[in-house]
Amino acid sequence: MSRSAGGTGGTDDAEGAQDPRGRHVAGSLAHRVPDLGALELLLAVARLGSLGGAARELGITQPAASSRVRSMERQLGVALVDRSPRGSRLTDAGALVTDWARRIVEAAEAFDAGAQALRDRRDSRLTVAASMTIAEYLLPGWLVALRSQLPDTAVSLLAGNSTAVAERLLAGEADLGFVEGVSVPAGLDSAVIAHDRLIVVAAPGHPWARRRRPLRAAELAATPLILREKGSGTRQVLDAALGGLARPLIELSSTTAVKAAAVGGAGPSVLSELAVGEELSTRRLVSVPVADVALARDLRAVWPTGHRPTGPARQLLSLTRA
């Protein structure tokens, strides 16, 4: 047993502690039992009667195979293989170890099959939670690309505001989320996957559509607007940028509904540039410049802290950055 530098305690060496008669009494199995590669090599030698043949079957060189056998023999403290010009033969101890090795390898194969089944089950479905702007204007393209790569994966989309996305992720109801708020919700890790800009819009008949000077931030903050509900990323960003908002003119739960109300002349609104491209190009809505406030925001992928996306969720995350 080796001693620590201070001489007050002991640490086991790589082969584990030994009693006075040299027997192992403690230590990790990983240090005392040959690895699966070595056991598979021993089984191949037993089956083929040739170390060289076993090496070829496992895709390694004969010197590497010989080195692995010698290392295994040192680790176990017994001779396992007799080598001669006529081939390789197991010793009596080697035959016994081979029987044990076969059971270990069979158990490892069952373990691997079970793990693969878990991966297959994980990869068979993906649940995504996304805030409304991302769900409506970005996710469809990403999901089409994902479908071409993983055609057998069933995808479910849960659309809601950024607060609802965080709640679903933390409750284990979604594998990956997308939000558009000011900050990352507590309990989640994130990665910025895109950038967006909010713009003030109004119907062509609204007085703001004909003004010659840009809006001031104070005037925008004091004006009742058609807004998304509390908890939406768009509203969070706008509220933070203006330092507060007037009581909403109308409060709606989807971007589509907010656009429809603005197009109908109910009043001005602030929406993602992603969401109003068609309405601006057809002049159903007019963009109203704002002079002294920046309404840019980051769009983020989010997941529970410490649980980096895997499987289809990881694939989708990579597509958002393509």
Automatic annotation (TrEMBL):
Assigned protein family: Belongs to the LysR transcriptional regulatory family.
InterPro entries named among the record's database cross-references: LysR_HTH_N, LysR_subst-bd, WH-like_DNA-bd_sf, WH_DNA-bd_sf
Disordered: annotated segments: 1-23
Protein name per its UniProtKB record: LysR substrate-binding domain-containing protein
Positions of the HTH lysR-type domain: 34-91
Domain of life assignment: Bacteria
Taxonomic path: Bacteria, Bacillati, Actinomycetota, Actinomycetes, Kitasatosporales
PANTHER family associated with the record: HTH-TYPE TRANSCRIPTIONAL REGULATOR, HTH-TYPE TRANSCRIPTIONAL REGULATOR CYSL
Biased composition (Gly residues): 1-10
Keywords: DNA-binding, Transcription, Transcription regulation
